[in-house]
From TrEMBL:
<dbReference type="GO" id="GO:0036440">
    <property type="term" value="F:citrate synthase activity"/>
</dbReference>
<feature type="active site">
    <location>
        <position position="315"/>
    </location>
</feature>
<dbReference type="GO" id="GO:0005975">
    <property type="term" value="P:carbohydrate metabolic process"/>
</dbReference>
<comment type="pathway">
    <text>Carbohydrate metabolism; tricarboxylic acid cycle.</text>
</comment>
<dbReference type="InterPro" id="IPR019810">
    <property type="entry name" value="Citrate_synthase_AS"/>
</dbReference>
<dbReference type="InterPro" id="IPR002020">
    <property type="entry name" value="Citrate_synthase"/>
</dbReference>
<feature type="active site">
    <location>
        <position position="262"/>
    </location>
</feature>
<dbReference type="InterPro" id="IPR024176">
    <property type="entry name" value="Citrate_synthase_bac-typ"/>
</dbReference>
<keyword id="KW-0012">Acyltransferase</keyword>
<dbReference type="InterPro" id="IPR016142">
    <property type="entry name" value="Citrate_synth-like_lrg_a-sub"/>
</dbReference>
<dbReference type="InterPro" id="IPR016143">
    <property type="entry name" value="Citrate_synth-like_sm_a-sub"/>
</dbReference>
<dbReference type="GO" id="GO:0005829">
    <property type="term" value="C:cytosol"/>
</dbReference>
<keyword id="KW-0808">Transferase</keyword>
<comment type="similarity">
    <text>Belongs to the citrate synthase family.</text>
</comment>
<protein>
    <recommendedName>
        <fullName>Citrate synthase</fullName>
    </recommendedName>
</protein>
<dbReference type="InterPro" id="IPR036969">
    <property type="entry name" value="Citrate_synthase_sf"/>
</dbReference>
<dbReference type="Pfam" id="PF00285">
    <property type="entry name" value="Citrate_synt"/>
</dbReference>
Length: 373
């Protein structure tokens, strides 16, 4: 007789797989990609170098870095039929991530199941899909805002080309800021979208389906949709002196304070601390207001719920940094997805190697069945 194991809601603290890709240590306020401190990588390495680390298990040599950058730069170009599809489907105000779902489905029409592919072919698919994210998302954004689509530049860095295709500009400071953000958000444990992609990969499905499942979870405002909502909270608060009253109202209504608290971290989110330093380099009115509001929110929460500190998470300063770099709020979550595409595909590859389908059970809580009816 099989004995069922009862898991907590949301699978909190339940280990469902082994991984070599990285880990999040919530009590320590630390996370890493493979054997490297992720925040150090975000400060010191290019997006392509960390992408190489996730795909191949090691940071590249100088020669490998140049070759990998050349390869993924060429892969950023999308077929004309995909651009035509976007032109035919994107309308004023279309969410770029929803347009991405359409485009990825079209790119994957001829994909074979991962179960039927060799490892090299799986990795080729992973690189191809992660490479086209910035091109598709930038094109969808420009079409939705009534501007011309910009072609990718294979010779440019991934972060620089994405920013140029999305906004038309790529000043060095803005590219550096966006690249730091992208590296810091490539992967982060078994979050909802990563787990969704791995579940689909465990069935042996094709790469496009795995990515679409991850994107579907990512579209949820409790997951990838938080950066724009965190910045909207800043706008709603206005002057920092309004913060405590605003927090009291949110807490009284049982509302989530977007940009604060995390499912894993019990101390400062290292990604938030990293992006705060990036934001401070701009020394703008928005940044000064954000830091003042952050202090007030933390103090207000501690006042209302003594001993239960909620610190700013990655979404809080992500919106500030992307705004300063010239990206509009509608592109905050898509930019997050540009980074996470690398993490998703790396996780899909790892899960595909396992060869075991993920198939949990559920507890039935409905009315008792009537035999024979």
């Amino acid at each position: 007789m099989t004995t069922a194991i009862t898991a907590p809601r949301g699978l909190k603290n339940v280990v469902v797989a082994d991984t070599e890709l990285g880990d999040v240590r919530g009590e320590q306020g630390f996370f890493h990609y493979r054997d490297r401190d992720a925040t150090v990588l975000a400060r010191t390495r290019t997006f392509e170098d960390v992408w190489h680390l996730m795909m191949y298990g090691a940071l590249p040599t100088t020669e490998e870095s140049a070759e990998f950058s050349r390869r993924v730069g060429e892969l950023r170009t999308i077929p004309g039929r995909i651009v035509d599809l976007l032109r035919a489907t994107v309308t004023d105000g279309t969410d770029p991530l929803r347009a991405l779902r359409v485009a990825i489905s079209a790119v994957g029409l001829a994909d074979l199941p991962l179960l039927d592919l060799q490892e090299e072919d799986r990795r080729d698919a992973a690189l191809r899909y992660a490479a086209v994210f910035p091109t598709i998302l930038a094109a969808a954004h420009r079409l939705a805002s009534g501007t011309d689509v910009l072609e990718p530049d294979p010779s440019a860095g991934h972060a620089a080309d994405y920013l140029r295709m999305a906004t038309g500009g790529c000043a060095a400071r803005d590219v550096a800021a966006v690249q730091t953000y992208l590296v810091a958000t490539i992967d982060h444990g078994f979050n909802a979208s990563t787990f969704a992609g791995r579940v689909i990969a465990s069935a042996g499905s094709d790469m496009a389906s795995c990515i679409l499942g991850a994107v579907g979870a990512f579209l949820g405002p409790l997951h990838g949709g938080a950066p724009s909502r965190a910045l909207a909270s800043l706008d709603a608060i206005g002057d920092p002196s309004n913060t405590r009253a605003w927090v009291r109202e949110r807490v009284a209504n049982g509302d989530v304070i977007m940009g604060f608290g995390h499912a894993v971290y019990r101390t400062h989110d290292p990604r938030s601390e990293l992006l705060k330093q990036v934001a401070l380099s701009y020394d703008s009115a928005l940044v000064r207001r954000a830091t003042a509001v952050e202090r007030e929110i933390e103090a207000a929460i501690n006042e209302l719920k003594p001993g239960r500190w909620l610190y700013a998470n990655v979404e809080y300063y992500a919106g500030v940094v992307m705004s300063e770099a010239g990206l509009p709020p509608t592109m905050f979550t898509p930019t997050f997805a540009v980074a996470r595409a690398v993490g998703w595909t790396a996780n899909v590859l790892e899960q595909a190697r396992d060869g075991k389908i993920i198939r949990p059970s559920a507890r039935y809580t409905g009315p008792q069945p009537i035999p024979g009816v």
